[in-house]
Specification:
about 190 residues; Pnp Oxidase, Chain A; 5 helices; 8 strands; about 35% strand; globular
Amino acid sequence: MLALNPGDACDPLLSHIPFLLAEKENFVHAHLSRANPMLDILAEGEQRAVLAVSGPDGYISPDWYETDLGQAPTWNYVAVHLRGFLRLRPADTLRDHLEALTAKFEERLLPKPPWRIDKVPERQLQALMRAILPVELEVEEVGGTWKLNQNKPDAARLAAAGHVEAGGSGMETLLLAELMRNPPTTG
C-alpha cells in the first residue's frame, strides 16, 4: 500500500499497487491510474511517501499456546515500510515497466505459459497505457516490524506455530509458521 500525505490534509491518500524493485537498489517502480488523486499532488513535484509491504500474517487462538491458559487472541504479522520520495517517471518508461511487472507475476504461475503484453492489440494497449502513469519511489529508509509471538516462552510459541501451519487463518501461513519458529532477532 502506497501512502502519501497531501500537505495539510488530515487523511493520507492510500493506493494498493503492484510494484517492482528497480535494478538500482533504492528505487521502486510502480504505476497509478490517471484518476488517482496522488497524481494531482505529484504534478506539483516529488512528495514524501511510504510504501507498506505486508508479509505473512494470521490469527492466533489463545488455545494454541497449550501451556498458558490466561492468554488473549492476537494477530501475528510481518511488514516492511519503505520511506522516501515519490515522483512521476517519464511516460516512455511505462511499457518497459508493464512488461517487467507482468513477467514477474506470470513467472509465479509456471508451468502455465506466460502471458505477454504483446498479446494485446497495439491500439488497445495504447488506450490502456493512456489510463495510467509510471511513478517511482526513491527509498531513503527501510523499516520493518513483526509480531511472531517472540515474547512468549518457546513451548507456547512453537505450539502456536504448529497450529498456524496445520490450518491457520491468514496469508502465507506456512511462511508465518516458519518465522514463528525462528523469529528474527533485533540488534
